[in-house]
Every structure is written in C-alpha cells, then in structure tokens.
Amino acid sequence: MAGKNCLSRRSFLQGMAGSAVGVVGFPYVVASSALGKAGDTAPSDRIVLGFIGAGKQSKHLMRSFLNSPGTHVVAACDVDKLKLQRGRKIVEDHYAEKGNGSYKGCESYADFRDLLARDDIDAVVISTPDHWHAITVIQSAQAGKDIYCEKPLSETIKEARAMGNAVRRYGRIFQTGSMQRSDWHFRLGCELVRNGYIGELKHVTVGVGGPPRDKPLPAMPVPDYLDWDMWVGPAPWRPYHSELSPHLSWDGFPHWRSHSYYGGGGMTDWGAHHFDIAQWGIGTDDTGPVQIIPPDGEDYKVLTYKYANGVTMTRDNANGVLFTGTEGKVETNRGHLRTWPESLKDQQIGPDEIHLYESRNHYVDWLDAVRKRTKPICDIEIGCRSVTVCHLGNIAYKLKRPLRWDPQDEVFVGDDDANRLLSRPTRSPWHV
User: Fold this and answer.
1) Which residues pair with 405 in a beta bridge?
2) Which of 267, 307, 301 shows the shortest CA–CA distance to 286?
C-alpha cells in the first residue's frame, strides 16, 4: 500500500484504541461498491472482498465467494506464507480462467491490519483459528467492513458479546458461518417443530464431540514460512508444534481446536452447527438455557441443558439433531430429514404458520444483506447465542457441577468461579 490510504500497524492500533467505544449511534458509511444490484458485475457495483486467513477452510470460502455474483476479491492475509501463496493463486487463477484482463491481482498481507487499512475493501471473510476471531471481527467492524466470519463465533462468551456490540455499534452486516441454516433439511425440520407438528416439544438430542483435551506438545523448530508469534497472537505463549499449525500439504483436521487456548473441542466445532439448529428449533435465538448439568454418573448420564420453557437438551448419541415431542419426532442432519410419523416430512407449511428465514445459499444470502443493509440468516446475535451454548457446556464439564445461567444478563447465578471462566486473559498487545 502507498499514499494516504496506508496506515501503519501502530497508527491503526492507536486509532482503534482511541475510538469512541461507548458512543451510541456511531455513524457509518456504506461504500459505493456495496450498493449495486445483486448480480450486477459492473466494477463500480461489485462488493470488494478481502480474506483474513488463507488456510484449509479458506480454500472453500474463496471458491464460493469467487463464484458468487457481484464480488471482486482483491486481497488475502495469512501468517503462513505458503497458505497465503496458495490463497492468492486460487484467486488469480479464477480471474485468469474467466479471462478478466483488467484484474490487477490479489494483494497478499502478513498482517490483517494492513488489509483493513485499505478503503477500497467493502467486506472481509474471516477464517482464522478460533482464538483470533474476536480481535479480527472487532477491528474489522471498527474499520467499517462488513463481515463473514467462520464458526464457532468466539473463544469465550464475553468475546462473543464484545463482537456483537462492535458489529451493532459500527452498523456492520455480519454473517456467522453456521451454514446449516441455509440447508432446507434443517429449516423444514425446525418449521415442523415450531409449528407443533410433533406436539409439544419436550427434548432435543444433539450429537457433537466433547470438550477440548489439552495434551503436552514438545517444542519444534518454527518453519521459516510461518510467523509463529502472530499465529499465537492473543493466546498464552507456547512453543510451536506442527499439530497446531500443520504444513500446507497436510489437509486433515486442524487439531489446534483440541487445545483450549485455541478452540473448544468438538463442543464448539460441530456444536456451532448442531446446537445452533437446536436453538432454532426451540425458538431461543435471542436467549439460551437456564441450567447446565454435567454428567454425574447417577441421575444425569450425559451433559444436560434445561430451558425456561421446560425443554431439555442433551449432548448424546444422535444423527445430528433429534427433536422429540409429545406426538412425534424430527431428526435432521446434512442431507437428511427423518420424521415420526414418516409422512410428516412431506408436510407443507401453511401460509398462516411460522415460516423461518429461507436462505438457499449462505454466501449469497450475506452478499444480498450487504447490498440491502439487512440482517442475514445467521446474524451476529444468533452466532453469539449459539456459541454461548457450546461454551456453557464446556464450563460445566470443567467445573464438574451443575450451573445456573441468566441468559438475559449473560452471567452465572451466584457462582464467582464459573463467572471467571466467561473470559480469558489476552497476551499483550492484543485486547478485546
């Protein structure tokens, strides 16, 4: 970057630190490139995108957004030079195949703040490890960018709320990457539940993995293509190990999520999908459970949540999400919808019944919302509430005792030890 649009990382941080965090009604400006009609690919009407994170998940996201109408990808950022080179090649190969001779190339950055300093970028797609989500989202909102952020939303409950506050304060359009809401199997399943086709909802069974399981990892030499200090970022310092930031050629599961400094295990990984659908079906997108009980080997064999409306939810064996009512059941998963009675899956939802938000493409849904300045299907508040359910379960597992939760004030009731686990310390200079 050069000229007046170039901000140093120091000045960017100083500017963000001096922003009016407590100001209500902060004015925001919609970039002209975000105001075009959907499907209009004129350069002045395209949504200009930058990618923060160019790892395994970003490969899919890049291709999805590159093939979405009315987008123009101009920049990518990663602390791993090899992944960044791959991401840049994906973008530039796409435009070369399309015969776009006017494309100037995908600029690459090692520091996300340099990408955010560009005033020609309308929106960002964030697919960093989970422990980086809060800082990149908040600073993206402060920089005036609309945001698509991969699930799970945050590393802690307080981070999620801080992210929600920033998105609202700066008037940003935000989509959480819990893309199952854009799959008709989940939507129809939840509509059947919400409209009472299985009678009164009594119980939800959610099939997800368990909490993180930290294990010692010996120090390894840091590869010359990786900025390890930046990868660790706000998390407590630890030496490099390839399990945390695997080599480009290894395309398996990112095992950093199994370590509590960087992720929440299967509880937040798949939980950000399946607990999200459970909340949708229960009708609690703006609230959450009031009690969380870990397995005790006696009365409670599995992790159990209780809601104020009498519904219980357990983390147990299920093919995705199983809703059980007084008159039937609905089980839904990716590409799968099963009902009891079987004929229920063919039920047409009437015009006067509850119709949930319909999205057929999670990425296009966000892009349309950016153009219209409306909430997409998985807005920041939904992402916040869903990931909170995941974190509540992990906290109950950690403390090994029942917890009472106030979903309005988002605090544990009369439990200082549990409330201390709502947040975590961050490594300087990173702060949420």
Assistant:
1) 412
2) 307
Residues 44-83 pLDDT 10s? 568 999 999 999 899 999 999 999 999 999 999 999 999 9
Cross-strand partners of 175: 148
Q: Which residue has tokens 């949708």?
A: 280
Nearest to 189 by CA among 319, 351, 287: 319
Boundaries of every domain in the chain:
3-17+27-179, 182-211+267-353+379-413
- In angstroms, the CA 265 to CA 103 distance is 40
Task: List residues bridging with 333 in a β-sheet.
Answer: 336
Task: Report the distance separating Cα 183 and Cα 188, nearest Å.
Answer: 9
Q: What pLDDT is stored for residue 231 in this prediction?
A: 97
Backbone CA torsion sign across 190, 195, 196, 200: positive
Are 113 and 78 contacting, i.e. CB atoms less than 8 angstroms apart?
no
Quick one: CATH architecture of 182-211+267-353+379-413?
Answer: 2-Layer Sandwich (3.30)
Give Cα separations from 245 to 43, 82, 86, 228, 263 (angstroms): 37, 12, 16, 9, 13
What pLDDT, in 10s, does the model give residues 210-221? 999 999 999 999
What is the reported pLDDT for 32? 43
If one counts every other C-beta atom within 10 angstroms of the C-beta of residue 171, the result is 16
The CATH number of 3-17+27-179 is 3.40.50.720
Which tens digit of pLDDT belongs to each residue from 291-318? 999 999 999 999 999 999 999 999 998 8
Residue 3 pLDDT greater than 70, yes or no:
no
Entry pTM: 0.90
315 and 208 Cβ atoms separated by less than 8 Å: yes
**What pLDDT, on the 0 to 100 scale, is given for residue 106?**
96
